[in-house]
Amino acid sequence: ITPNDWDTSTLFPEIETITDPVQVTKLSQDYHTFSPILQPKLAGKTGDVVVRPVNEAQVIQVAAACVKYKIPLTVRGAGTGNYGQCVPLHGGVILDMTRIQEILWVKPGVARVEAGVKLAQLDKKAREIGWEMRMAPSTYRTATIGGFIAGGSGGIGSINYGLLGDRGNLLALKVITMEDQPRVIELRGDDVQKVNHAWGVNGIITELEIPLAAAYPWAEIIVTFHDFMTAAKFGQALADADGMIKKLICITAWPIPSYFVALRSYLPDNTHAALLMVSETSLEPLQDLVAEFGGKITYQKLAQDAGKGFHLAEFTWNHTTLHARNVDTSLTYLQSVFPPDKSLSLVEELYHHFGDEVMMHLEFLRVGGIAVPAGLQVIRFTTEERLNEIIHYHEARGIFVPNPHVHILEDGGRKTVDVAQVKFKEMVDPYGLMNPGKMRGWMERA
Ligand code: FAD
């Protein structure tokens, strides 16, 4: 049976449904378009209908109907994922969660929210009592919390708290199952990992309990350097400065700063840039650190002006790639995590080895308690073979590459099948209707 045989008006009289093909096609897309490899693979893949429930009871109705008629279901937040996570490979229902967006409560250090809450909305609410999200992607103004947990990995704040998969960064999840009689299941403790970063293949997340961080008055700063390795070592030193409070350390090698059109007056030609968020209380020590490394502060915005002008964070993480591609659509990117090494010798080797073909973009984050650079290098794409060669060159040197040019969960950052996630899917999605074609462990199970 296909959704064409499925009369949405009688099945969901109270649920908003979109059938206009132009809208449905739009709501079947995400930002996999950053990848020249994924673009042709996912071209033309669309759902048949978009359903926009407003509460859990309506989600259960949609789940029950999809199970009854064996219709594939792809959950969607804001659709900002980069790996085609919410592009439906086999048509069916797109379940848009953005109308389920209540902040249920915020207490010191923890919040409970519905899955469609936008990250910026949660941050704003938490700040009313002096707290904020521990980490957010650079898409925080549009992305949903459900989509971040199911499809993201970390971001601004990861220098303090590591990645979403680290124990303690997600406290609880509520999911709706796709069984004959859909159930509501609450997962707490280590059990949250069964659904964390599972790309919506094993349960519809409706609520989450998220730990918060103490909110500081964040200043936004640009520092420029004449030498890239000095900029990178400055980034490592700031990351390691335990007495200094920071939230973002992004280092970009020229010519990447030339792509930041709105920032150009702060980025002289041929300089390498550090884009930072540091607590105002750490601004004086920051000046000393900048002086030690011979950098120059070209821009500074205090917390009271946070809402004015541009948001520096929206030039970092994968927004760096976005700005680069706005100037030159042939550019793409890589993701990598360097092994701990305070001298940054691998960064230096690769910077010189690839030159402008692989432009260095580093984001510092904590991995296992140690501050390391993660690369979101901007790449001048030529062929798939060359891209793979570049990836292998990194891997051969012990650099971990969560490949952003694949649309299968395990082929990206995970590398191996997560047995607990597959087992959970067997229970909650026995017909394999959720986001089919994305989980190798499910497709290849015995
Ligand atoms: P979507 O793209 O809508 O969904 C992502 C995945 O989650 C899909 O598989 C979907 O099926 C699933 N899903 C969504 N909601 C639910 C739910 N309620 N229940 C079950 N499954 C669900 N990511 C980072 O981690 N860090 C970054 O800094 C970052 N920067 C980015 C910058 C740019 C310019 C772009 C385009 C992307 C970036 N991303 C980043 C990727 C993405 O924006 C984030 O991961 C974001 O949090 C995804 O949220 P979303 O609501 O858009 O999710």
UniProtKB/TrEMBL annotation:
Alphabetized Pfam families for the sequence: FAD_binding_4
Top-rank lineage group of the source organism: Bacteria
InterPro entries named among the record's database cross-references: FAD-bd_PCMH, FAD-bd_PCMH-like_sf, FAD-bd_PCMH_sub2, Oxid_FAD_bind_N
Coiled-coil annotated residue ranges, if any: none
Residues of the FAD-binding PCMH-type domain: 42-215
Name under which the protein is recorded: FAD-binding oxidoreductase
